[in-house]
Each structure stands twice: as structure tokens, then as C-alpha cells.
Amino acid sequence: MVVVLVFLPLLVELLGVLLPAILGVGISLSRWNGLGSPEFVGFANYALMVEDPVFSVALGNTAIWLLLFGTFSYVLGLAVALLLQADRRGVGVYRTIIFLPVVFSSVVTALIWTSFFQPDGLVNWLLEALGLGEYARAWLGDPDTVLYAVVVAALWRQVGYVMVLFLAGLKSIDPHLIEAARVDGANAWQRLRFVVLPQLRNVNMVVISVIIIDALRSFDIVWGMTRGGPFNSSELLSTYMFVAAFGQRALGYGSAIGVVILVLALGFIITYLSRALREEKES
Amino acid sequence: MTGTLLTARAKVESKNEDAGLMRRRRGVSKKLKTAAFHTAASSLALLWAVPVAVVLMTAFRSVDELAQNGLASVPESFTLESFAEAWEKGGLLQGLLNSFAVTIPTVAISMALASLAAFGLSRYRIKYWKLILLVMLAGNLMPVQLTLVPVSRIMQTLGLYDQLAALVVVQVAFGIGFYTFVLYGFMRSIPFEIQDAAAIDGASPLRLFWQIILPLSRPSIAALSALSFTWVFNDLLWSLSLLISRSNLPITASILTLRGEFFTSWSVISAATVIAAIPCVVVFFIFQKSFIGGLTMGAVK
Fold first, then answer.
1. Whole-structure pTM value
2. ipTM of the complex
């Protein structure tokens, strides 16, 4: 009886997620336009990636995306959490304001920032006002800047999320530890470096895993701002997968890109899972 | 040896004196610190709030005034006409209704299934419970891209393609692992004595669940529901992959379509953006406390 309660949801998960994932790996070994039946081609789709210039661009952009989006959301999220951790008057308001964009959809975020990055938009106006008018440009139309513009928008939405994770981590640190370090004469920087950050180590691994897994999956924000354009210059693996599978009807090739995304995320997925389960053992 | 010890002690003592001095100075420095904190925090908050304020301002401008003065100009008009335009021509009502039609059943079904699974896993000895939790959580972390093609294919076979029900099925399947994991963590913390007492009285597992465990878990279920609402409501990728008809698109996809049609009418696009953001903002402010709690329940304990 109780077993049924557990197995029904498990079944939904197995049929809805894991079975499709296995099928996806299978489809990645085939050539298929969705009309006839798939034709088995072995690893031909993966071989194709090596010669596909758009794939290289998407892969390179994904690396830049992981680096910039990952690093900045981590560093800014931690910094903001450290700034807003104390229970001071007004701190709740600050936290709420910075968290609010997390509640907006990526599409809403995308449209907000698309308007700012227009040639006559807020960003260029600000540059002119600061006497930096020479740097004004069509940020989303310029292949050199488009990816960075999208990263800025994505960060605006992500920092509040990372902040909240770190705030919870900071709250779980025993205040006596910090007080003891203070009594021993450790200054603010030393307390951060030798007490707070080491205590955050567990949280760190989770936050990093979550950021990377999310970053590799990010689709909505790029699609909402540029659809990977202009000329694939802001294409990520996630958007290129969609274009290949649903735009060009190359279902096998698209699924192969999906496999690449899974492979890139796998290490972090395992890190996250092993940590989650280690905690189960301890208790 | 003794010499080093003495200097060490001297150092400690001088440090203690410093500490005493610091304490006396703290009154002044505390005020300074508070001022510095508010300066830093409020400029940061301003930086985060400006985009929202600008979009709100743009949404209330008239199409003509905006066209005349440009996007980055001081507003000279205040009108609701852009909202009316977006509402009438953008199909936003249909979009919102579709989003609710997907989100509300998804949240309800997810919570029902996840709380039952968490109940079984946390209150009874189930074989392979750890493996089950692992598999469920792993499903939640799966890159969606790998499953897009098979899922859209399966939905075609089931006759669910281009139907809102397809989104419900997929979102339940993808979310349930995380919800189960979080609720499992919560339900495990409920004392077992309660359960034993009820079992002696002859209560069935279902009654135990319904009358004892579920009511006690209400706060975490509320938190997860609020979170889940925003996740499902805000999704774009699945609706692009599983829906074709414009009349079926949820609000996220509708406002993107509208953006394509009102190419440069930024007041109309901004108005649509504001409308699309409202439901989740409302949910957030109603459940604010538990919302943030829910977000960290799974990730950080």
C-alpha cells in the first residue's frame, strides 16, 4: 500500500524524464527529420560537430557564458549576501529588491534589457551622459557585444538567487566561532578568510553546482533577447540544440548536442547528488 | 625560549589594550559603519530597482510621445493606452489564462504526488529508499535539451501535442523529484512517537498521512507551491517545444510574439512585460517568507 504511494511518483519521473533522456541518447545516434523512421548512423552526428562552425561558436560561447555568468553570479551573490547578512534595520527591503528579479520570468527579464540595449536605449543614453558616447552601439546587433549584453541581463536576475542561498549558509554558521575569532584579534578580512569562507565550503559546492547546471540549461533569456543571433553570435549549446532540432528538423543532431550538454553538466550533477545523499547518511 | 614566550605574552597584552580602545571608539565607529552600510546597500538596491522603475515608466507613456522623444527620454505623457493596446492586440488575456491553466494543475498534482512519495519514503522502511531519492533528484537536474525531441515525439503519439495538458505532464515529471526530496527532508523531522500512537489506534497509512503528517507539513508544502508556481508559470522552452497554436501559448511565449509584432513600440512591449510579471510578483509577496525558505530548503540545510 505504502509502496504504491512511492512508486507512482517514481514511475511518473522514470517515464517523464529518464526514459526520454535514454531515448534522446538513442536518437543522437541516428539521422532523423521526424517524418520517416530514424536511420542509425553511429557517432556520425558527433563527428559532424567537429566540422560545424556554428557548433564551435556555440561551444565557445557556452564556455564564455559559464565563465562570466558563473563567476559573476557567484562572486556578486556572495558579496551581496555578506553585505546584507546582518539583521540591521532596512536590510529586509534591500534583500527583497535584489531578490525581486528572480521572480520575473527570463522572458520578462529579456524584454526589459532588450529595450535598454536598443540603439536609443538607456545604456547608450547613460554612456552619452558620462561622456563615453563613443562606446555607444547597437549592443544586441553587434556580434562583438551581444553575448556580454545577455550575460548582464542574466546576472541581474541570478544574483538575488545566489544571494539567498549564501544567506542561508551564512545563517547556519555558529556565531560563537566568529566571536571567538574576533576575541582572538582577527580583523574583518581574517574572519572572512579563515572562519566564514571555510565554514561555507559545503554551501559553496551546492551553489557552484546549481549555478553551472543552470548555466548550461539557460535558454529562455538568450532566446528572449536574441534567439542566438545576430548570425549565431550569441548562440549557446542550449539554443543551438533547439534550432537544430526544431528549426532545421535535424532531430538526431539536436539530440547529440543535448548529450554534450549532459556530459558537461554531469560532474556537477554528481557533486550535487553525492552531497545531498551524504547528508541523508549523517542524519 | 622564555624570551619568546614573554614577547608573545606582551603582544597579546598590547592587543588586549587595543581591543579596549576599540571598544571605547565603537560608539562613533558604529554610526560610521551604519552609514557606510546604508550607502553601499542602497546604491546596490537602486542599481537593481532602476530597470523595474524604467520599464514601469515606459509602460505608462503614450506610443506617440515615445516615438517622438525616443526611448531614453524624460517621460512627458502618462496614459494607460499602451496597456489597453497590449491587452487588446497581444492576446494577453488568453496567454494569462493558458498560463494559469497549466500552472495551477501542475502545482496541485506535483504537490499531491510529491507529498505522498515523501510520506512513504520518510515514515516507512522502503527498500532501496536511497536509490529512489537519488533517481528522483537526478531527474530534476537533467538538462531539458536532451529530452525535448523524445518528449515532443511521445506527446504526438499520445495525441497531447499542442495541448496544454502536455505541459502539465512534463512539468510534473520534471519537478516532482525536487519537491519529493525537500518534503522528504521535512517529514523525516516529524517525531515518530506521533506515528506510533496513531498506529496503535489502528489508523491506516492513508489516515496517518491525511490527518497527521499532511497538516504538519503544510508550511513546507505552501513554500514549495509558491516556488513551483513561479517556475512553471515562467517557463518558455517547453511551450515552444510542445505547442504550436497561438491560442494555446502561455503568457511568456505570448509576450515574445507580441515583441515581434510591435517591433519598436516599446511602451506597448513594456506594458505587456509588466502584465506578464504581475502574477508571480503577487505570489511572491503573499508567500514572501516561506518562498525564500523553500528556495533554500533543498539546496542548503
1. 0.88
2. 0.91
